[in-house]
Inverse folding.
DNA sequence: CTCCTATAGTTGCAAATGCAACCATAAACC
DNA sequence: GGTTTATGGTTGCATTTGCAACTATAGGAG
């Protein structure tokens, strides 16, 4: 930085570093438990929260903040593993739906056990409830703002 | 989640989503400006803050929160682009040092112009100075805690 | 109805990443 | 000194990701 960094810029830098460190740890812990990577968890979780455990590929991409081609490949692998099923969309001839299987639900639950442990231990333990609430609110604003932009 | 998510878990979820969205945007903006990816910026920034603009490969890995093999490849490309130079470490026959070139310094400055604009616009604009300070402190605790763990 | 454009999803190919195996040197041990 | 163990860095290989091109269907304009 040419001028010395502003408080917001410092916060940004830590934001990136902390997340990188946390994700590294969590991925390693999942791998050690012989569970799939976080990317799979995200898909499973998004589907589980969708009506009927079923979503269009593009919705999956938007909610998961990943590219459409990435969703195709991700669900390819997950379908091979029996966690989701894809089918032609009845309402739109171009579309494909992706839905959670029972095995997918069970896998999400198993992963959550480990994932939750890590979140609580590495992240939650370092912030107060009030801080968590304020942080969530802050981030929500940022997310909302991004969704409104072109 | 089987039980409904705690405030800390909600904060975590937004933490991940917000960062993914922000990084997507920033990478896209850098690419549109025909600048290298963020990963290069991080290396340049870390080197610029090091004494003499020079660090050992493993220090680079630790500070940048990336794997050592990744550092090797990253600096391979950056060296080809003339932004850094590697040399055998004088004090340790096994070691390699990586140092910033003038061109590397200039590139970091050019990237920072764009990067800073994005941070301020997408992140800084949504949080108050007090929130930024509290956030930075919170994240610092998390980072410190992670560094102390095995 | 036909043409034109936009959207949904997949795929080929290139670039990036992680992991494990590897070579070289350093440090510890006897 | 000679052997063993740990550390620093790179490389091969498999996996993952992104981008651009492509196919197919939908929706709108004339």
């Amino acid at each position: 930085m040419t001028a010395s960094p502003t408080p917001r810029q410092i916060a940004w830098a830590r934001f990136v570093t902390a997340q990188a460190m946390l994700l590294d740890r969590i991925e390693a812990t999942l791998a050690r438990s012989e569970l799939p990577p976080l990317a799979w968890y995200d898909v499973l979780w998004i589907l589980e929260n969708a009506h009927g455990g079923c979503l269009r590929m593009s919705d999956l991409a938007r909610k998961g903040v990943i590219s459409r081609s990435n969703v195709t490949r991700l669900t390819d692998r997950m379908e091979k593993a029996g966690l989701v099923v894809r089918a032609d969309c009845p309402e739109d001839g171009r579309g494909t739906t992706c839905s959670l299987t029972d095995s997918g639900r069970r896998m999400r639950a198993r992963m959550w056990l480990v994932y939750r442990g890590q979140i609580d231990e590495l992240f939650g333990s370092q912030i107060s409830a009030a801080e968590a609430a304020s942080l969530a609110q802050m981030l929500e604003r940022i997310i909302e703002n991004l969704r409104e932009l072109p």
Remarks:
- Residues 37, 39, 66-67, 69-70, 73-74, 77, 92-95 of chain A lie near DNA strand D (CB under 10 Å from a C1').
